[in-house]
Structures are given as structure tokens and as C-alpha cells.
């Protein structure tokens, strides 16, 4: 049985603005990260997969079903939009029940699944909490619960951790990993840390084009030998920022420890520069630099 | 899926402030306009003159007769935009009204009031002067109507329109018999119920429709609902049907109250009242009005995603109410057919073909508008009404790629 999402030469434009340019991508089962700057085309791609937007060109199949078969696709996908909410006067249970009906679930299925899912997302004590009284984190968890209520094969999650506190973010990421055990979960985000913590397979979009597709370790490998650390004075810092992509810094008094992208020749110009192991953020920024410089 | 969604939508309406506002307005309107039961009674021979008169003469006579009551009490009923409004004239204005009466009847205001209030003299005792032509009479009536702020009984068009009443005792008797026989009493009350409630149902449902249609967007729930399996027809039809049912709930209760009074009256008049006539009128007459207003609300709001429908329907309603040329037996192309009388089955019989055509037309329009609503909604679920353009797209106005 086909358990992949395949995109072939997919393009999408809004008038003159091209949001997706000839995207070719295969998304396998498990967690899949879609990374990119704000405005890179991630939300457009998510919406195309969720049948909320129609691509101008290209072919898309989800588990072997073309996206033009909207009803079938909607049956097998769960979607959590970036700014998910529901009617404020509904309780968590009622919101789930309403969306469950829209997903075509019978009374018995809803009755059995809703409490179980609310428990899974740690909202078992908030069944009667009104949506309007929920925190951002609670809403996202409710969003996930509603998205998997009809047991979809694919879960599409758009920027789910934006605005969450660190604890909620970690809890949410763990939840996604649990869900991804038996389905495809596409996590779209501009937060590198989310991808690093959850996904092995990723794709990077930039200005509508797919600039990377592979594993996290392959991306890290690309940045090997390109990340340096140096302790410099604050005066030198400004000059360094002008000439290099700085991926991290720690300032203390008049000194600053910086991580930056450079080749060995460039690094030799910086006194005390030491080659470092790249992390995901370094690798992502290196990729973006390769693509078109520091934007 | 449809029925479950329908029930959920009904439940949501029961938690909506807009719905309770709708009920309050509907009940208040009913109480003020139909609160006191006006029983049908057999015509009294002495009160009706025998010889037939011309329509013009009848109109002048009716105006003078009405003036005797209203001028003497300085309490005039006017119907601006179809709603009853009691008007009291200031001293100076009442004096001007007195001058009009004097010009038309030759009687001083004091004499006119004396005749009107002594309880012995018949209203026939007051005649319009022979030298006053019908045109002159109507000119004076226009002045009086303007003194009263328009919409009064004396408005020339209304005066002539309201004279479609029995001329003789025999005619009045025959009319009464028709109400007993054809209307079985309850039908006559069904018509007046539809007349009054039609006025308010020509506008109120649009608020419910707009509230429902903007709810998804306001709650930021559109995208998640768009992505669900349910068809656009099922989603929209469940919302529409729930609104329609919940609008008819108070109407059904109020009409049942009136129907029970009419049934009781039928018993008093020794007639077997028909309990279903009221509901035939309720659904046949009022439902197309409610449906078209709901459809306009749903369609325009789905198209514009704002409250423009309220403005549009408000304008349409205003025009409809103003355009009614007479209060009893007016159909035309009006959204709100008028029948502001209890009885007069013969007038109803005459207007029936036009009424049926009118109601069927509005029913078709409402179905068409609903179909367009489903079309627009489905388009939005697929990325917008016009692909690749910002207008009515399901993405934000500034495309978030």
C-alpha cells in the first residue's frame, strides 16, 4: 500500500506572485519537517496538501490518491491551521464533537474517541472548558486532537508552536512524535529547534523553491567544516557581522563568543577561530547562505 | 450527518444573544400589533347605509367618520413603515386640523367634536360640503396627513385603497358569512397574523443569517471547517435549515396562541373552526418571506464576509413597506404582501392568484440564492472564488506563502 505523499512539478501563484515553483518532493511515513523563512511558501504548500488551495501546475498524490479527489483526501488527512480556533462558547468536548460530525463520524465513534483523544493531548480535565477560556497551548493541543479525530493517514500541521512557552512547545513536539508513529505528520515551521527535536527527514523551502530535501544528518554534513567559533571583542563583533553569517553569540562584558559560517580561508583571518561541530541551526543558515546570501 | 449538524446548529442558536434579541423583537411586535384580540362579529344593520356609493364618496365618508373619532380625542393612528404609531397633535396643529374639518364640512371644530361625542347623532349626520370636489377633499387630506407626519389613514392613496369594504348591509352580511364558511374564522386571523409578522420577518432573519455566516471567520474556524469531509451543501443546508426552524419556533407558538383564540371565537359563533388554516397561512405565506431574507443574508455575507447584507436587506425592506399601495389586499411584487384586516375573504379570494405567484417566486429566488451560497462556499473551500486573486480567497488578503 502506498504510504507516501508525492509532489511532482508543483507550482502555485497568486496573480504575479509565485508562491511555489516547480516543487518535487516525496514525503514518507513518520515525522517530516518543512522548514523555511516566513513567506517561503510553507503555508501555501500545506494548504495545497489539505485541498484548500489548488496548484496551478503539477501532480500531487497522497497515499496514491490524487488531490483532485477532495472528499477522499479530506477523509485521509487531518489539518491543523496556523491560527486554529473554534467557536468561543463551545467547550473542548463540544468543539471536538462538532468537528467530528463534519468529519463524518457517527455518534458512537465520537463518544468513544473524543475522551480518549482529549486525554492523549492532556486536556482530559478541560472537557468542559470553553474554547474562549483556553490558553494558546491548550488550543493547539485541542487542534491536534480534532485533526486526528477521524484517524487520518496524514496529519498536516502548520506552524504549531509559534507563540507557545518552552514547556508547552516541548510537550507539543512530543505529542506530534507520538502521533507520527503510524502516519505521516508534516510539520511546517520556521523554528529550526522544532525540526531538530522531532524530524529526521526534512525539506527546506525558500521563495517558493525547494532548496533541500533529505535527512537532518545529511544537512548537518553539508555544514561540516564551515562553522567556526571565536572569542572576539565587542568592537570586532560589528565588523564580523558585516562579513560573515553569525549563527550564534554569547556576550560577556567586553567580550563575545560567536559562531559563524566561514570556509577555512576566511576563518584563518579571524584570530582564535576554532572549527566547530555544526548544529541544525548552523546547517540551516549555511544552506540559506548557499542559496542566496543572508537575507 | 445533516440531521446531527442541524440539531447542533439549533443548539448553537439557543445559545446566541442574536437569537434571543430576535425572539424579544418578534414577541414585542406581536404584542403591540396583535396583542388585543379583535373578534369578528355579525354586522349591525343600523351601522351600514343601504344605498351603494361611489368609491370616492365612500373614501370621503370613511375619512370624515374616522376623523370624528380621532380629532375629538386628538389621538391619531398612523402607520409609518407599516408599524402602528399613536400621534397627538400640538395645540396649533390641532387647530390647523380643525380648519381643514371646517373647510370640508362647514362645521366648527367645537360643533364637530360635539356631534362626535354626544353618542346620539350618527356619523352620517356630518356630510362633506357639496361644493367640495373629490380632488379638493384629497388635497386637504394630504395636508392633514402631512400634519400627522405621513402614514396616516388620511393619506390619499391609502384612503382610496382602504375603501374595498362592503358598501351595504347585505354585502357586509355576505362577507361575514364567507368568513364563517370559507375561513372557518381561523383563516381570517391567519391572514392578519401573516400581515403583521410578515413586516418584521422581512428584516429580522437577516441578522441571524449574517451572525451565522460571519461566525466561522470571527472564530477563526473557517480553515479547519473547510478541511473537513462534510460537503458544502451539508454544511450550509444544516445552518440554513436550523435558522429557518428556529425562526418558525416563536412564530408557531404565537400563531398557536392566536389560533386558539380564533378557535374559541369560532365556537362562540357556532362554527367548526379549522385549526389548520392558521398554519397553512403561516407556512404558505410567511415562509417564502423568511426564506428569501435568510438567503439574502447567507449569500451576501458569504460573498462579502461582512455585514453588508443587513444594509441591503434593510433597504429592500424599507422600499417594500413604503411601496404598499394599500394595507388590505396588496400583493404586487412585494416581499411583504399586506392584509391588514380581519375577514374580507372576498378581497383575499381576488388577490389569491397573485399571492400564490408572488410566494412561489420568492420561494424560487430563495432556493436560487441558497444554491449560489453553496457555490460560493465551495469555491472558497477550494482556494477562493476567483483563483489566484486575492478577492474572496481563503488565504489572507496579504498572501501568506
How does this model look, in words?
The complex is a heterodimer of chains A (295) and B (401). Chain A has 295 residues and is α/β, with parallel strands linked by helices. Chain A has helices at residues 42-49, 70-76, 92-102, 107-120, 136-147, 166-179, 192-198, 216-222, 234-243, 264-267, 280-292; strands spanning 5-14, 17-27, 30-36, 57-62, 65-66, 77-80, 154-158, 184-189, 201-206, 209-215, 227-233, 245-252, 255-261, 274-275. In chain A, the strands form three sheets. Chain A has a six-stranded mixed sheet, with helices on both faces. Chain A has a four-stranded antiparallel sheet with strand order 2-1-4-5, covered by helices on one side. In chain A, helix 4 (107-120) packs across helix 5 and helix 8 crosses helix 11 (280-292). Chain A is globular, with a radius of gyration of 22 Å. With 401 residues, chain B is mainly alpha-helical. Chain B folds into two domains: 2-38 and 179-381, no CATH class; 51-165, no CATH class. Chain B contains 15 helices and four strands. Chain B is elongated, with a radius of gyration of 25 Å.
Give the helix/strand layout.
The complex is a heterodimer of chains A (295) and B (401).
Chain A: E1 5-14, E2 17-27, E3 30-36, H1 42-49, E4 57-62, E5 65-66, H2 70-76, E6 77-80, H3 92-102, H4 107-120, H5 136-147, E7 154-158, H6 166-179, E8 184-189, H7 192-198, E9 201-206, E10 209-215, H8 216-222, E11 227-233, H9 234-243, E12 245-252, E13 255-261, H10 264-267, E14 274-275, H11 280-292
Helix pairs in contact in A: 3-4, 4-5, 5-6, 8-11
Chain B: H1 2-13, H2 17-34, H3 55-73, E1 76-78, E2 85-87, H4 91-105, H5 109-117, H6 134-147, H7 156-161, H8 169-181, H9 186-201, H10 204-218, H11 222-226, H12 232-268, H13 277-304, H14 308-323, E3 328-330, E4 338-339, H15 345-381
Antiparallel strand pairs in B: 1-2, 3-4
Amino acid at each position: 500500500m502506498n504510504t507516501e505523499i508525492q509532489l511532482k512539478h508543483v507550482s502555485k501563484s497568486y496573480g504575479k506572485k509565485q508562491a511555489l515553483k516547480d516543487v518535487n518532493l516525496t514525503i514518507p511515513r513518520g515525522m517530516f519537517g518543512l522548514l523555511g523563512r516566513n513567506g517561503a511558501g510553507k503555508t501555501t504548500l500545506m494548504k495545497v496538501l489539505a485541498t484548500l488551495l489548488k496548484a496551478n501546475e503539477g501532480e500531487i498524490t497522497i497515499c496514491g490518491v490524487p488531490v483532485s479527489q477532495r472528499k477522499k483526501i479530506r477523509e485521509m488527512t487531518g489539518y491543523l491551521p496556523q491560527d486554529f480556533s473554534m467557536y468561543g462558547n463551545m467547550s473542548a468536548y463540544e468543539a471536538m464533537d462538532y468537528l467530528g460530525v463534519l468529519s463524518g463520524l457517527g455518534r458512537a465513534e465520537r463518544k468513544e474517541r473524543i475522551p480518549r483523544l482529549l486525554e492523549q493531548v492532556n486536556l482530559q480535565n478541560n472537557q468542559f472548558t470553553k474554547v474562549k477560556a483556553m490558553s494558546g497551548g491548550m488550543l493547539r493541543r485541542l487542534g491536534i486532537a480534532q485533526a486526528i479525530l477521524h484517524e487520518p493517514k496524514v496529519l498536516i500541521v502548520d506552524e504549531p508552536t509559534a507563540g507557545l512557552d518552552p514547556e508547552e512547545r516541548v510537550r507539543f513536539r512530543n505529542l506530534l512524535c507520538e502521533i507520527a508513529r503510524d502516519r505521516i505528520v508534516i510539520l511546517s515551521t520556521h523554528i529550526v529547534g522544532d525540526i531538530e527535536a522531532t524530524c529526521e527527514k526534512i525539506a527546506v523551502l525558500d521563495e517558493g523553491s525547494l532548496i533541500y530535501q533529505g535527512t537532518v544528518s545529511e544537512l548537518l554534513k553539508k555544514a561540516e567544516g564551515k562553522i567556526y567559533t571565536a572569542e572576539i571583542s565587542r568592537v570586532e563583533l560589528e565588523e564580523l557581522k558585516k562579513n560573515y553569517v553569525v549563527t550564534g553569540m554569547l556576550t560577556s562584558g567586553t567580550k563575545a563568543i560567536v559562531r559563524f559560517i566561514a570556509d577555512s580561508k576566511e576563518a584563518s583571518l579571524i584570530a582564535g577561530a576554532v572549527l566547530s561541530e555544526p548544529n541544525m541551526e548552523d546547517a540551516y543558515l549555511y544552506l540559506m547562505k548557499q542559496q542566496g546570501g543572508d537575507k | 450527518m445533516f440531521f446531527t449538524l442541524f440539531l447542533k446548529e439549533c443548539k448553537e442558536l439557543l445559545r446566541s444573544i442574536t437569537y434571543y434579541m430576535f425572539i424579544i423583537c418578534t414577541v414585542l411586535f406581536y404584542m403591540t400589533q396583535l396583542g388585543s384580540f379583535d373578534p369578528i362579529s355579525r354586522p349591525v344593520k343600523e351601522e351600514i347605509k343601504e344605498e351603494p356609493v361611489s368609491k370616492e364618496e365612500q373614501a370621503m365618508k370613511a375619512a370624515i367618520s374616522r376623523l370624528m373619532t380621532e380629532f375629538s380625542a386628538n389621538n391619531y393612528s398612523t402607520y409609518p413603515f407599516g408599524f402602528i404609531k399613536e400621534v397627538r397633535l400640538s395645540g396649533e396643529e390641532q387647530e390647523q386640523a380643525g380648519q381643514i374639518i371646517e373647510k370640508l364640512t362647514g362645521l366648527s371644530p367645537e360643533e364637530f367634536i360635539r356631534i362626535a361625542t354626544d353618542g346620539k347623532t350618527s356619523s352620517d349626520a356630518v356630510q362633506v360640503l357639496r361644493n367640495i370636489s373629490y380632488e379638493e377633499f384629497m388635497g386637504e387630506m394630504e395636508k392633514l396627513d402631512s400634519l400627522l407626519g405621513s402614514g396616516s389613514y388620511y393619506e390619499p392613496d391609502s384612503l382610496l385603497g382602504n375603501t374595498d369594504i362592503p358598501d351595504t348591509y347585505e354585502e357586509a352580511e355576505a362577507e361575514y358569512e364567507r368568513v364563517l364558511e370559507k375561513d372557518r374564522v381561523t383563516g381570517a386571523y391567519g391572514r392578519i397574523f401573516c400581515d403583521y409578522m410578515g413586516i418584521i420577518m422581512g428584516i429580522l432573519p437577516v441578522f441571524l443569517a449574517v451572525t451565522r455566516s460571519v461566525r466561522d471567520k470571527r472564530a477563526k474556524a473557517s480553515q479547519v471547517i473547510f478541511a473537513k469531509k462534510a460537503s458544502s451543501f451539508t454544511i450550509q443546508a444544516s445552518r440554513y435549515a436550523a435558522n429557518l426552524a428556529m425562526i418558525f419556533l416563536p412564530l408557531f407558538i404565537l400563531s398557536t396562541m392566536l389560533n386558539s383564540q380564533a378557535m374559541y371565537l369560532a365556537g362562540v359563533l357556532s362554527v367548526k373552526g379549522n385549526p389548520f388554516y392558521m398554519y397553512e397561512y403561516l407556512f404558505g405565506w410567511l415562509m417564502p418571506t423568511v426564506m428569501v431574507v435568510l438567503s439574502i443574508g447567507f449569500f451576501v455575507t458569504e460573498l462579502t464576509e461582512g455585514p453588508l447584507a443587513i444594509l441591503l436587506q434593510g433597504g429592500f425592506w424599507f422600499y417594500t413597506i413604503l411601496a404598499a399601495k394599500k394595507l388590505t389586499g396588496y400583493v404586487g411584487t412585494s416581499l411583504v404582501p399586506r392584509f391588514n384586516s380581519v375577514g374580507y375573504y372576498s378581497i383575499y379570494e381576488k388577490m389569491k392568484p397573485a399571492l400564490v405567484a408572488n410566494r412561489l417566486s420568492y420561494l424560487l429566488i430563495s432556493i436560487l440564492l441558497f444554491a449560489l451560497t453553496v457555490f460560493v462556499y465551495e469555491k472558497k473551500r477550494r482556494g477562493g472564488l476567483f483563483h489566484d486573486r486575492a478577492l474572496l480567497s481563503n488565504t489572507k488578503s496579504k498572501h501568506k506563502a
